[in-house]
């Protein structure tokens, strides 16, 4: 790729548009999805099937007053929403959308994404702490303990994938799953490992953890609107709230990208490379897979009620962490045996 | 049944004057004997009046017949097993001196006595926390006294911090500053409400939190207080019907029916069979709606928004029937003393059958999401347990009481409107936790649908109004053509239905529990006094017993599960 | 300097400019009015609140935060091991097994001690 200024600006523009539009239109998808599950149409007024709703919401949020409660530390209060959005978006830099669409293939891509995800949890703490509001305070403590609890099984489970592929580079991990869907890491059959029954377990743990890490229902304890009003963003109005809202969706995209890359073969065609256009390994498959996963996220949200914070912590510390540790050991053992 | 009761009471209290009024035993007790009498009424195994339904006072200042004292305090008690209803009346010589409290005997008396103090200024000696409850703490005077001018408004807007009350509550549980100090943290005092998504109306739940555990809880109500009782003293009997709509607005027509039933009982008026069956069908239909709203809101509190739509969509759709029938969706004011405002419309059976089917589908869909759901089980089973004893002492009735395993339902135990001829079951819980309360309501929806289906098969023909023009308006052609008819109409509208002087209590199994009306009539067309016994008020009075020791999240769903309706709670 | 680094750097800078601009824009575009009541932290509309948000309130999860540190660092230790599992051979596997079993013992000990008993 030639490094002209135009190219760089174009690439930056496309990248930012992609993530921005994604975040905005996932709100629309969510509302439509909710409508679908709840036997109602969802947004219909603005544009065809309410498709103009997200930009109109954006303009509305932008032109509302950003209320800053008296006595808060203004800097912290203003930084929190930016901090919610920024790490979620910057993680896209390391995501390989296809073998040539990746901004920066970092060798430790997996770790970079986890590092930024942890930073996202920080924004909830900062927002809750900075709001001088009791609900926000309780919520921020909840959010941090939740992020902390689910990061461990997430990290440990990812190790199983790292063991199999022997690499922390997301692109390399996908490269090993290009021979049709049977070579995907989610299946027990894997050409290098042989017969590994434990991969679906890893997949399940990772999936649950990414739902929890993105603060989605049934794990949306930070928001918990019936208990804590709106949790950490109770005091945020206009775009302050808007950035938190979009940050959540950006996080969902990151989470589903990660699941797709680690377990579902990334940009690979499920039938192997057939050489004819739609059935080659291309970015279309990647997008299809992440949107399917996002659909499942939305499906789960509108099916399950919220857990309690204690149920959530117990699930992680009593079940997911021991299971993921055993899973790791057994996978390592199997790798050595075969 | 009341023969044995009154004989037993006469035998046990030979020197107390008892009589029976409309199925209720009324005892006149001197203030000096009150404490002892109440004690015996509660603890004698033969009597066992475990349920204190209501406490109210009557101000006889402008009553035509002179009385011994200006104020009387009336305690309404019930023995649910034997279906005995009892009222204890005590004259109060000096309200500022007051009466001994009975809050040691029944927990329900705590709030009930506060209400009497608030509305009438009668003190209760030994009451732990005697302050205003429905009116604002800055309010001056006692509004239900006859010498309080109904048009005298007061503007109060300072919130009470409730700091004193919650610290007292903490102390009574043995928790003070030093308990927290040893781990170097402080108690957090958090308000849930009045403007909070979980309170569904405006109730203030003030909690003292250690982490997320509720150590103490004090509640403030009265945000929707609009002086129902005072307004009722200024309206004719039929004019009060729209006011009753606003009590439990989720099942407005049930309140209408309960209200007119109470007056008809006193008048000895037998309404037509068609009106009776209509009332059964409509009140069961509204019970279904009320439960749908309660369950929907409860599941929203739990975060299950989809359940809300499955239940609420059907409820909204079935309001079409109510609206076609009455012209209003929510506050229908559909009954009149002596019958119904209007007959069923043409083709209502098909509509009803359709809505019942839709409701069954919605409820079954929602049950599919709830019954096998581990999250719902974890959150609701074993949390906020209401024991039988607590439920009885705080005067819980209806689904909340039945969830504890006590199968008390007025439709079975004291049937009215031929409920005894219908085949239906009374669902009871076993644990008294949130899950039981939810499931009792789910089951009651199916039972009510069963009753409606049976009733629809036997709807008799004929008019829906009695042919007695002391209560019913004369037909229009007589009003327009004959002076007697015109005068009849004029008198009924302007002076209201004349109700013979006297006092009585009548109760009705509303969606939330026992909805009672205590009337005092001076013989005119306007009630001298009207007191509602709202089931919510007593459910809220015992709320703190259920949530202390639980988490905030549990407290929120518990509020939904006992179905607190602001309109009825605050009147 | 590689093309990727420039590109990701550019995206980084682009985001670092655009997101704060969104915040600043909303402050500039939105109306500005305030009053004492409007600026009060929200607590269900109650004016006279007891206590305030920045008091020392009891956080029951603080032990978990300490546990997290241990587990998180262990997990990070495992990454290099996982990448080079093939080279390390059976010895590496046994070593890591011992390590993980120690961790698990610790976890079981913690659970038995009742760190996760909330009520």
Compute the number of structural domains of chain B. 2
Report how far apart the termini of chain B are.
Answer: 33 Å
Kindly name the structural category of chain C: mainly alpha
- Which stretches of chain C are poorly predicted, pLDDT < 50 over at least 5 residues? none
Mean pLDDT of chain C: 78
CATH class of the largest domain in chain B: Mainly Alpha
Q: What is the CATH-assigned architecture of the largest domain in chain B?
A: Orthogonal Bundle
Global structural class of chain B: alpha+beta
Q: Indicate the mean pLDDT of chain B.
A: 86
- Helicity range of chain C: 55-70%
Q: Strand portion of chain B, in percent? A: 15-25%
What Rg of chain B do the Cα atoms give?
24 Å
Strands ordered across the widest β-sheet of chain B: 1-2-5-4-3
How would you characterize the largest beta sheet of chain B? 5 strands, mixed
- Shape category of chain B: globular
> What Rg of chain C, in angstroms, do the CA atoms define?
25 Å
Contiguous low-pLDDT stretches of chain B (5 residues minimum) are none
CATH topology of the largest domain in chain B: Cytochrome-c3 Hydrogenase, chain B
Protein architecture, described:
The complex is a heterotrimer of chains A (338), B (571) and C (119). Chain A is 63% helix and 1% strand. Chain A has eleven helices and two strands; from the N terminus they run H-H-H-H-H-H-E-E-H-H-H-H-H. Chain A has a two-stranded antiparallel sheet. Chain B has two domains: 2-125, NADH:ubiquinone oxidoreductase Nqo5 subunit (Beta Polymerase, domain 2, 2-Layer Sandwich); 228-570, Cytochrome-c3 Hydrogenase, chain B, CATH 1.10.645.10. Chain B contains 22 helices and 15 strands. Chain C is mostly helical and 119 residues long. Chain C is 69% helix and 0% strand. Chain C has helices at 3-29, 36-39, 62-83, 85-113. In chain C, helix 3 runs antiparallel to helix 4. Chain C is flat. Chains in contact: A-B, A-C, B-C. Chains A and C meet through helix 1, helix 3, helix 5, helix 9 and helix 11 of A and helix 1, helix 2, helix 3 and helix 4 of C.
């Amino acid at each position: 790729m030639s490094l002209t200024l135009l190219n760089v600006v174009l690439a930056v523009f496309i990248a930012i548009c992609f993530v921005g539009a994604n975040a905005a239109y996932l709100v629309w998808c969510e509302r439509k999805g909710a409508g679908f599950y709840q036997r109602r149409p969802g947004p219909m007024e603005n544009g065809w099937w309410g498709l103009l709703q997200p930009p109109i919401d954006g303009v509305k949020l932008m032109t509302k007053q950003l209320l800053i409660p008296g006595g808060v530390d203004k800097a912290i209060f203003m930084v929190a929403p930016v901090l919610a959005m920024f790490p979620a978006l910057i993680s896209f830099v390391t995501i390989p959308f296809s073998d040539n669409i990746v901004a920066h293939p970092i060798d430790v891509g997996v770790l970079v994404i986890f590092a930024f995800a942890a930073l996202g949890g920080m924004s909830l703490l900062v927002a809750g702490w900075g709001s001088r509001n009791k609900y926000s305070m309780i919520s921020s403590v909840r959010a941090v303990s939740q992020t902390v609890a689910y990061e461990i099984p997430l990290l440990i489970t990812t190790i199983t994938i790292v063991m199999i592929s022997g690499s922390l580079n997301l692109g390399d991990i996908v490269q090993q799953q290009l021979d049709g869907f049977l070579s995907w890491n989610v299946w027990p059959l894997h050409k290098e490992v042989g017969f590994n029954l434990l991969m679906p377990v890893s997949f399940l743990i990772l999936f649950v953890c990414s739902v929890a890490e993105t603060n989605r229902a049934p794990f949306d304890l930070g928001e918990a609107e019936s208990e804590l009003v709106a949790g950490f963003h109770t005091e945020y109005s206009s775009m302050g709230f808007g950035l938190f809202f979009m940050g959540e969706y950006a996080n969902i995209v990151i989470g589903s990208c990660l699941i797709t890359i680690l377990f579902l073969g990334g940009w690979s065609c499920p039938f192997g490379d057939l050489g004819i256009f739609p059935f080659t390994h291309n970015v279309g498959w990647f997008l299809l897979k992440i949107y399917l996963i996002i659909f499942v996220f939305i499906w789960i949200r509108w099916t399950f009620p919220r857990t309690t914070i204690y149920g959530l912590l117990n699930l992680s510390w009593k079940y997911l962490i021991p299971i993921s540790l055993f899973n790791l050991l057994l996978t390592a053992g199997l790798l050595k045996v075969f | 049944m009341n023969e044995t009761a009154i004989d037993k009471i006469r035998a046990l209290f030979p020197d107390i004057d008892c009589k029976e009024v409309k199925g209720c035993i009324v005892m006149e007790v001197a203030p000096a004997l009150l404490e002892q009498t109440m004690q015996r009424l509660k603890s004698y195994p033969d009597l066992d009046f475990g349920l204190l339904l209501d406490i109210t006072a009557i101000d006889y200042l402008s009553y035509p017949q002179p009385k011994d004292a200006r104020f009387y305090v009336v305690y309404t008690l019930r023995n649910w097993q034997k279906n005995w209803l009892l009222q204890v009346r005590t004259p109060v010589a000096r309200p500022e001196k007051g009466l001994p409290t009975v809050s040691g005997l029944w927990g329900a008396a705590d709030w009930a006595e506060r209400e009497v103090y608030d509305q009438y200024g009668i003190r209760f000696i030994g009451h732990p926390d005697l302050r205003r409850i429905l009116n604002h703490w800055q309010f001056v005077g006692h509004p239900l006294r006859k010498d309080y001018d109904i048009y005298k408004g007061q503007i109060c807007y300072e919130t009470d911090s409730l700091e004193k009350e919650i610290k007292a509550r903490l102390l009574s549980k043995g928790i003070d500053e030093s308990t927290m100090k040893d781990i170097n943290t402080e108690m957090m005092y958090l308000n849930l409400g009045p403007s909070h998504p979980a309170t569904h109306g405006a109730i203030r739940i003030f909690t003292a939190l250690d982490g997320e555990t509720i150590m103490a809880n004090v509640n403030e109500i009265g945000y929707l207080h609009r002086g129902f009782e005072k307004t009722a003293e200024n309206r004719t009997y039929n004019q009060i019907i729209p006011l009753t709509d606003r009590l439990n607005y989720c099942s407005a027509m049930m309140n209408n029916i309960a209200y007119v039933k109470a007056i008809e009982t006193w008048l000895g008026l037998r309404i037509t069979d068609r009106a009776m069956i209509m009332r059964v069908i409509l009140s069961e239909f509204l019970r279904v709606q009320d439960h749908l709203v309660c369950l929907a809101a409860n599941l929203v509190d739990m975060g299950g928004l989809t359940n809300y739509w499955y239940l609420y969509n059907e409820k909204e759709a079935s309001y079409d029937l109510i609206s076609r029938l009455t012209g209003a969706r929510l506050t229908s004011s559909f009954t009149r003393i002596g019958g119904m405002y209007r007959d069923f419309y043409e083709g209502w059976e098909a509509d009803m059958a359709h809505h019942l089917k839709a409701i069954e589908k919605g409820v079954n869909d929602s049950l599919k999401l709830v019954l096998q759901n581990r999250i719902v089980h974890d959150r609701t089973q074993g949390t906020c347990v209401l024991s039988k004893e607590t439920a009885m002492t705080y005067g819980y009735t209806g689904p909340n009481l039945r969830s504890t395993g006590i199968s008390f339902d007025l439709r079975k135990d004291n049937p009215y409107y031929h409920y005894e001829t219908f085949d239906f079951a009374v669902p009871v819980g076993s644990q008294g936790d949130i899950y039981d309360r939810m499931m009792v309501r789910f089951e009651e929806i199916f039972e009510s649908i069963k009753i409606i289906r049976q009733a629809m098969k036997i709807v008799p023909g004929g008019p829906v109004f009695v042919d007695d023009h002391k209560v019913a308006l004369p037909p229009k052609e007589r009003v327009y053509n004959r002076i007697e008819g015109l005068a009849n109409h004029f008198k009924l509208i302007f002076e209201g239905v004349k109700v013979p002087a006297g006092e009585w209590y009548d109760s009705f199994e509303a969606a939330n529990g026992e909805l009672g009306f205590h009337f005092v009539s001076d013989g005119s067309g306007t009630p001298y006094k009207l007191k509602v016994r709202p089931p919510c008020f007593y459910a809220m009075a015992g709320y703190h017993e259920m949530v202390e020791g639980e988490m905030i999240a549990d407290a929120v769903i518990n509020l939904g599960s006992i179905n607190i309706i602001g309109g009825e709670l605050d009147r | 300097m590689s093309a990727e680094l420039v590109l990701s750097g550019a995206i980084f800078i682009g985001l670092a400019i655009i997101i704060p601009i969104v915040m600043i824009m909303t402050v500039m575009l939105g109306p500005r009015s305030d009053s004492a009541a409007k600026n009060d932290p929200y607590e269900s509309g109650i004016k006279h609140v007891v206590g305030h948000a920045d008091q020392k309130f009891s956080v029951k999860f603080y032990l978990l935060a300490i546990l997290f540190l241990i587990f998180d660092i262990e997990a990070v230790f495992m990454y290099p091991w996982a990448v080079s599992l093939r080279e390390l051979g059976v010895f590496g596997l046994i070593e890591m097994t011992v390590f993980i079993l120690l961790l698990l013992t610790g976890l079981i000990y913690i659970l038995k001690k009742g760190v996760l008993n909330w009520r």
